[in-house]
């Protein structure tokens, strides 16, 4: 089999064959490894497509024809690689099946069922398994639709039931404990590569996919009519330009980076993150694989740990999930989150909303809740009414904006207590409201003192009851924060330990 050979280049970096008027498709097609940039196709992290593993000539010819048809239509090189890999898996299966499979006529349903079983045991994980089934299905549909073969059996089909079932995705957002370490300026300054440092900040604040971030151009900043800055990038997955709002700090960092490129680069470049070994025409940017490896080394160097003290597992795409979850936790409308992340459907954005609700519910169930008299309130998370009770709490949190707790009264029923929540049996509060309770206690003491001076005994009695409830609430919630505080000495953060995410304490959401 032929190997990819280095083509001579002219002084401006173009291929000698192209300069002689040779059609690049004619030059590449017969090779077993295609260099996609020579075909005029932009490649992010997949520069070649290999057909070497496909040993059957008839199958290799169909795979090449399929790739040649897909790439000019706008398919990414990565997707073409996956398609070729699925055909290579079929070829590998035929080697082990004991059959000859002399041509497409042998690809009947019985053989396909055996191939699906082969993929189940040989695919590298559920994502690869499902992707290869889908790519093989597209391969069969394409060669049949375009008449590239005439003897493909009518039973050569993939049905919906053939796809492996999707599993519910586990939460992928990084915890605020981990993010606080990653966003620490001192840790960010430990990046040895200024390109990778800025890529990290962009991933955290803008939620781009890593392939889109490394491919940013130097004209990526645009402004609206009010002068607000936006980051403009090419969404390679959706094949469209997208905009995401940014703050002035990130805009300044990008401008400084461009100025650094102008000072240090030997020639002008249109790329924000050019690779040191870039092509002569300036089309090469740092690769996603290089950044991912560098990210792992940086996280280890900074000794970033999770809540249990174990080394944190950080990947570029988790920054995207983290931004989406942060925005949802801050009650940003789902449509706005969808536009910021440039999702194609609300279903994907809704995944973040589901994760947010799950996270809030877990904290709510774990938090110690006390009523207006300081007595503990218990809710059974596994009881027969658990789901309905949580729905009621969510509705109450959305419709009853109390400054110091939550109303447990059904929303269909009007409150008979004239906003006297601290003497109401339906009132529930948690440790996140301790600062409000202490502030309220000071105000109540001032009211009692003033009422006593004026001889307003009834007002003294009413506020004394409120003061007693406040004292019991604060004492009960103080026990919660004291028991959860580590033994090691540190700053007094007793008043800043929210057990339930709250708009005043949910992080920056950048």
From TrEMBL:
SUPFAM superfamilies: DNA breaking-rejoining enzymes. It comes from Rhodococcus olei. The keyword rRNA-binding does not apply. Belongs to the 'phage' integrase family. It comes from the Bacteria. Residues 478-510 are annotated as: Disordered. The keyword Transferase does not apply. Keywords: DNA recombination, DNA-binding. Residues 169-365 form the Tyr recombinase domain. This is Tyr recombinase domain-containing protein.
């Amino acid at each position: 089999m032929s190997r990819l050979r280095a083509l001579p280049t002219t002084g401006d970096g173009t291929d000698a064959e192209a300069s002689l008027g040779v059609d690049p498709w004619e030059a590449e097609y017969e090779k077993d490894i295609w260099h996609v940039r020579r075909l005029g196709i932009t490649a992010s992290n997949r520069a070649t497509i290999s057909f070497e593993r496909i040993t059957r000539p008839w199958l290799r010819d169909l795979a090449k024809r399929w790739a040649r048809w897909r790439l000019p239509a706008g398919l990414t090189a990565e997707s073409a690689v996956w398609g070729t890999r699925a055909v290579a898996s079929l070829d590998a299966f035929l080697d082990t099946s004991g059959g000859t499979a002399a041509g497409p006529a042998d690809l009947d349903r019985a053989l396909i069922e055996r191939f699906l079983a082969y993929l189940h045991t040989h695919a590298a994980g559920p994502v690869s398994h499902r992707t290869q089934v889908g790519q093989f299905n597209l391969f069969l549909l394409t060669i049949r639709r375009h008449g590239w073969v005439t003897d493909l059996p009518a039973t050569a089909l993939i049905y919906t039931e053939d796809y492996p079932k999707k599993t519910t995705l586990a939460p992928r957002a990084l915890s605020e404990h981990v993010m606080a370490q990653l966003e620490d300026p001192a840790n960010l300054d430990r990046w040895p590569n200024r390109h990778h440092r800025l890529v990290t900040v962009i991933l955290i604040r803008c939620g781009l996919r890593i392939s889109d971030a490394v491919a940013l151009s130097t004209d990526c900043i645009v402004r609206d009519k009010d002068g607000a800055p936006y980051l403009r990038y090419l969404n390679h997955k959706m094949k469209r330009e997208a905009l995401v709002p940014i703050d002035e700090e990130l805009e300044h960092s990008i401008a400084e980076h461009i100025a650094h490129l102008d000072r240090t680069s030997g020639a002008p470049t249109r790329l924000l993150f050019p690779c040191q070994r870039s092509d002569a025409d300036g089309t090469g940017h740092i690769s996603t694989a290089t950044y991912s490896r560098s990210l792992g080394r940086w996280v280890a160097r900074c000794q970033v740990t999770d809540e249990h003290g174990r080394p944190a597992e950080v990947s570029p795409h988790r920054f995207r999930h983290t931004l989406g979850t942060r925005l949802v936790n801050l009650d940003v409308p789902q449509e706005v989150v969808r536009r910021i992340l440039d999702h194609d459907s609300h279903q994907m954005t809704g995944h973040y909303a589901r994760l947010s609700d799950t996270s809030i519910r877990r904290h709510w169930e774990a938090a110690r809740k006390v009523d207006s008299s300081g007595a503990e309130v218990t809710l059974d998370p596994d009881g027969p009414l658990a789901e309905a009770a949580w729905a009621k709490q969510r509705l109450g949190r959305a419709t009853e904006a109390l400054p110091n707790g939550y109303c447990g009264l059904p929303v269909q029923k009007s409150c008979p207590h004239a906003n006297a929540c601290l003497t109401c049996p339906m009132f529930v509060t948690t440790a996140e409201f301790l600062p409000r309770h202490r502030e309220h206690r000071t105000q109540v003491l001032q009211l009692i003192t003033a009422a006593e001076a004026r001889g307003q005994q009834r007002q003294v009695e009413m506020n004394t009851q409120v003061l007693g409830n406040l004292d019991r609430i604060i004492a009960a919630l103080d026990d919660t924060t004291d028991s959860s505080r580590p033994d090691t000495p540190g700053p007094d953060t007793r008043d800043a330990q929210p057990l339930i995410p709250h708009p005043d304490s949910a992080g920056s959401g950048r």
